[in-house]
Amino acid sequence: MNILGIETSCDETSAAVLSDGTVRSNVVSSQRCHTDFGGVVPELASREHERLIVSIVEAAITEANIAKNDLDVIAATAGPGLIGAVMVGLCFAEGLAWALGKPFVPVNHVEAHIFSPFISDEPGHKSPDGDFVSLTVSGGHTLLSVVRQTLEYEVIGRTIDDAAGEAFDKTGKMLGLGYPAGPEIDRLASNGDPKFHRFPRALTSSSQTSKSYRGNFDFSFSGLKTSVRTWLSRHEPDYAKQHLADLAASIQAAIVSVLVEKTIAAALLHKVSAVSIAGGVSANSGLRTAMQTACDKHDLDLFIPKATYSTDNAAMIATMAQLMMERDRYRENTYGIAPFARFSAAGKGAR
Ligand code: KG4
Ligand code: ZN
């Protein structure tokens, strides 16, 4: 079975082909037009998707060495995301499915991130075979979920203000870095001192009245933002510049320690034997290393998609469609689905 996946929810235009569960191609074009604006400009994103969608889909099909008519299923992100951006991929995918007379599967972008440990591009790929705790951290979402093989999942924690990726991007912007700042902070942090300044770690065990995590796996990153702003206002710009790497390392340490602490606590409380991290921030090398160390300590298996499958990509959309079809969570010919902007924490599982 050949599934074409299409992803256009934010600033990546992507198409992928999955053949019998294995990724044959995954073409991703990251939009550069937003760099000077310090964030994604929705209107520009939609226009760029429209400009690129045909050539990206064509490239994915060519790379997979198949013809359009060999496609059995067309899948696309239906949300959450920027509505105009989502609509470009969704309309294109529906139109293509209709023209080819093939089934169309709408996919929830966040669910595709949650289930991204199942993306396989080589024989013997190992994915979770029991319940696991997923930390899904991107520019728009920070979710902690308990995930089951049936594709059901329960969201047990989420951010009450900024997403983890936003925490990287917004503090990075204060340091004068371009958008998105996450990868740049990651790079700078490798040469910096994470103990240079202790930025706040909100809603962690020491900052909560109860020592127990029961009932509170939520995240908050707005205090970190304020704290970085305050630090910068109290120090000379030259001094901050000299210590750019130290500041990056200290910011990264604050974000990473909260993410790791809560994920491990959730895994222990829910008695799962595996943890996964997904979404753009899971590309962060500090997070990867710290989570691996913590998982080793608690004898938990850790699943992290390859970096190309951590940030937005269409392989995860095609994989999610495959899982939905295998597990009977898909309605035949779901044409006319309304694109949606927000992730409603239904948490009841993929449709
Ligand atoms: O999943 P994603 O590609 O798009 C969304 O759905 O939001 O995530 C993008 C986010 C951005 O905030 C970006 O700064 C962050 O992921 N990111 C990183 C790294 N690579 C991407 N943050 C920290 N370290 C990285 N290496
Ligand atoms: Zn994403």
How does this model look, in words?
It is a single chain. The protein has 351 residues and is α/β, with parallel strands linked by helices. The protein is built from eleven helices and ten strands. It is globular and about 65 Å long.
Describe the secondary structure blueprint for this structure.
Layout: E1 2-7, E2 12-19, E3 22-30, H1 42-63, E4 73-79, H2 83-100, E5 104-108, H3 109-114, E6 132-137, E7 142-147, E8 153-158, H4 164-174, H5 182-189, H6 222-234, H7 237-242, H8 244-269, E9 274-278, H9 285-297, E10 301-303, H10 307-310, H11 315-326
Parallel strand pairs: 1-4, 4-5, 6-9, 9-10
Antiparallel strand pairs: 1-2, 2-3, 6-7, 7-8
CATH topology of the largest domain: Nucleotidyltransferase, domain 5
- What general form does the structure show? globular
Could you tell me how far the N terminus lies from the C terminus, measured between alpha carbons in angstroms?
A: 21 Å
The oligomeric state is single chain
Mean pLDDT: 92
Name every ligand kind in the structure.
Answer: 5'-O-[(R)-(carboxyoxy)(hydroxy)phosphoryl]adenosine, zinc ion
> CATH-wise, what's the superfamily of the largest domain?
ATPase, nucleotide binding domain
Strand content: 15-25%
Q: Write the CATH architecture name of the largest domain.
A: 2-Layer Sandwich
Number of helices: 11
* Major sheet characteristics: 5 strands, mixed
Low-confidence stretches: 346-351
Level-1 CATH class name of the largest domain: Alpha Beta
Strand order of the largest sheet: 3-2-1-4-5
Query: What string gives the helices and strands in order?
Result: EEEHEHEHEEEHHHHHEHEHH
Computed structural class: alpha/beta
Radius of gyration over C-alpha positions, nearest whole angstrom = 20 Å
Cofactor: Fe(2+)
InterPro entries: ATPase_NBD (IPR043129), Gcp-like_dom (IPR000905), KAE1/TsaD (IPR017861), TsaD (IPR022450)
EC number: 2.3.1.234
Protein name: tRNA N6-adenosine threonylcarbamoyltransferase
